[in-house]
Amino acid sequence: QVQMVQSGAEVKKPGASVKVSCKVSGYTLTALSIHWVRQAPGKGLEWVGGFDPEDGETVYTQRFQGRVTMTEDTSTDTAYMELSSLRSEDTAVYYCVTDRGDAFDFWGQGTMVIVSS
Amino acid sequence: DIQMTQSPSSLSASVGDRVTITCQASQDIGNFLNWYQQKPGKAPKLLIYDAANLDTGVPSRFSASGSGTDFTFIISSLQPEDVATYYCRQYKKRITFGQGTRLEIK
User: A with B: how many residue pairs have Cβ under 8 Å apart?
Assistant: First the structure.
């Protein structure tokens, strides 16, 4: 059973960056395809990006291109998502999730990121 | 980008009712569709993969069908624990979620 434990809540000022971590256990990170999904307060789910095994690279949804970077530290089985140039609209819960190919199956508990001056 | 139009956005039904939610893709996605259930304050839970397959451990009152652009999700007999928001997700090309359907008990 894969478990995903995310870092704690963050409060950032507009223009700053945030880096959220996702520690994987029960499986090695290299065997997983990790994605990130966010959910603004009271809103729906929005895919941010993730590893595409067919392309062999990380892909991002268009609206985050240039602002988001997803990385992995295989020595600690930890995935990271960094979002820069934060604005108030980036206030959301950010989830890491594994992609088994036909579904997102194991989810982290979510990390609340608040952007406020 | 593929757009997913989910309806209704909210609905209220009685315990034991049959509930239907639809999802329409802006282009042919074959059967590359999931359905998820999300309860308040929790991460989403996978219910359906490949448009019609029930994930392990999911109660049989949940079912889904469809292919191409039109998809349907059904709860055959609504239970109190089914109160949640339901999302479709396409994974044919990149990933897109529907807007969600908030389901409550009447």
Answer: 49
> Which residues of chain B lie closer than 8 angstroms to A107, CB-CB?
43-44
User: Given this model, what pLDDT does residue B106 score?
Assistant: 94
Instruction: Decide if A80 contacts A70 (C-beta within 8 A).
Output: yes
- Chain A contact present for B92, CB below 8 A: no
pLDDT digits (tens, 9 = 90+) for B55-64: 999 999 999 9
DSSP 8-state class, residue B55: P
B34 to each of A20, A44, B62, B67, B98, how far by Cα in Å? 26, 15, 13, 12, 10
* Rounded (5°) CA angle A39-A40-A45: 30
Residue A65 pLDDT > 90, yes or no? Answer: no
What is chain A's length?
117
